[in-house]
Write a structure and sequence with these properties.
The complex is a heterodimer of chains A (390) and B (306). Chain A contains 13 helices and 18 strands. Chain A has 390 residues and is an alpha/beta fold. In chain A, strands 3, 5, 6, 9, 10, 17 and 18 form a seven-stranded mixed sheet that branches. In chain A, strands 13-12-11-14-15-16 form a six-stranded parallel sheet, with helices on both faces. In chain A, strands 2-1-4 form a three-stranded antiparallel sheet, with no helix packed on it. In chain A, a hairpin with a 5-residue loop joins strand 1 and strand 2. Chain A is globular, with a radius of gyration of 20 Å. Chain B has 306 residues and is an alpha+beta fold. Chain B has two domains: 128 residues, no CATH class; 162 residues, START domain (Alpha-D-Glucose-1,6-Bisphosphate, Chain A, domain 4), CATH 3.30.530.20. Chain B contains nine helices and seven strands. The N and C termini of chain B lie far apart (58 Å). The relative contact order of chain B is 0.09. The chains are: A alpha/beta (390), B alpha+beta (306). Chains A and B meet through strand 4 and helix 3 of A and helix 8 of B.
Amino acid sequence: MKANCWMGRNTLEVQEVPDPRILNPRDAIVRITSSAICGSDLHMYDGYIPTMKKGDILGHEFMGEVVEVGPEVSRLRVGDRVVVPFPIACGRCLACEQGMYSVCENSNPNAGLAEKLMGHAPAGIYGYSHMMGGYPGGQAQYARVPFADVGPIKIEDDLPDEQVLFLSDIFPTGWMGAEMCEIKPGDVIAVWGAGPVGHFAVASALLMGAERVISIDRYAYRLEIAARAGAETLNYEEVDIFDALRDMTAGRGPDACIDAVGMEAHYPIPAVQAYDRVKQATRMETDRPYALREAILACRNGGIVSVIGAYGGMVDKFPMGSFMNRSLTMKTGQCHVQRYMEPLLRRIRDGEIDPSFVITHHLRLEDAPRGYEMFKNKEDGCNKVVLHPW
Amino acid sequence: MSEEYERETYRLACALGWASLGLGIVQLAAPGAVSRLSGVDDSAWARTGVRLVGVRELMHAAVLLGSRRPAPWVWTRVAGDAMDLTVLGRAMAKRTGWRRARVMAAMAAVAGITATDLYTATRANRHGPRTQIMGPMDLRAAITVNRPRQEVYRYWHDFENLPRFMAHLESVETIAGGYSHWTAKGPARKSIEWDAEIVEDIPDELIAWRSTEGAAVRNSGSVRFTDAPGGRGTEVRVEITYDPPGGKVGLAFARLLGEHPEQQVRDDLRRFKQVMETGEVARSDGTPEGPYALRQVLQRPAQPVK
């Protein structure tokens, strides 16, 4: 089959690789019909996620048709149309029983590797480094799906791929980001990052009843998409975010702040950007946490900072004094996608939201390397790329 | 040995580490001055030699200051001292006059340091079980399994299940009367076989076993099952003791190749948890064997296995 392989920093190749096989009784094989490029794929493309290996297949947002099932799979049949959640979860450990699927205790065969860096190991994730299990990703024609009874959700009606594909990651991720804000009537929510996850966080916060949602980015075209989803917008290259937020909330600060940016943030002051860029290049820190620092400082006293942007390792200059003295709460996590798929599918079916509003490009799988470049460099108004493997 | 004695040894070893660091820096920063001071500046390669010794000193400093138990590493300094004395001795033989005097002074200084190093190193040898070169290896590990204690005990109690999660075992056959025959993958892919007997068996609580007389690899082990608090399943605690083939030296080599016995036991328990909770061992195409210490160093690319 064809697959999009990571061949080193900033290097991708669509290669011919073996077709996946059933390795365990609870596996299924899915013939992929749509697969997306995620912002977090860029962290690997840019070489900031440790434990990548030449030849790794990328991609964790995919859906398709079940073509083979292992003997222990009872809920799925050959021919079923499914969306696959990005965290691999066994469904039977304590974490899964509590709905914390992205920290499943059993799905990461390289848990020992992850423990060295993180203390304890998170779940396995498709196409997301060896520390996260060494699972081949879904930017390919087929994928092996472990614990197939637990993850994939069946799509039984005629909703097109582009409306349900994002149940695999970014819609639930944005939703969880808003949910962690514990939104109450009158709440003002600020969202750093107007990428697709930020867009879904905006839409979700409004669905949950937020009074106002403010979207922060530097790309006008991305802020426009956020505005269409219902946000007020701020361009951090034009205004001072801290002042603007204080102004908009009459001095209180947003009730909750969502970091939908993560480890490769940008900062409008070149000297500050250079400081973290140098530390990152020399591996003295792995992550540039501008959005996080700003979200903490901007949040109202006693408010919530919700982190859904992806981080990889270490940050520094973390404003702990502000965080502690002002009684803030931080909530975070890779999304527990399995928890949200059913209810969000219902909302799509009921017409409350059409997730396809984030898509700007459809490409063939062969053009994945070009898609990454466009997405990374924000060329041609690129916001979300969907790949078609067949 | 008293704690005070051990603390003193620790302080001495650390002080020697800092001394190595200081000396190393001086030797690298000012090799000319050092070679003049020790009377060997007439030699063409004196500066290079001093720099090399400087690098060596930094290595001493790294192992001494970077270790939780630095004292045994003082032996590396003793070896360095011997080397320095040899080199200086040869230098002295070739020289006369004030140069000879300086070389002799340097030798006297090194001899003094050697005495301190030897004193500290032998202190380290006088205590601490870990300085033994031979002797059994003790391993402990624990994991929580989200299944009832009876079920977890019952699965482990059937020793024929052990190879499903213990990576080094090929097979276990149970023989009558609490005896069993074990086959394991040894070093260099040779099979090792032995018989074992159950020495203690408390239903739902404890199983202990040991190899019988004449086993190639003497070993024993126990596993304890207790209820985890608040309905969190069962806490499983394993202790294994064995004579590593090739002794501790063989073990050190195995470690260099990525075989960490501690990691292996933890991985065995991880696989045990997976089998108990999910019915299978988690495999990815990057790690098709499931959790496996050696594989974590040498990952396959995340591409389907053929």
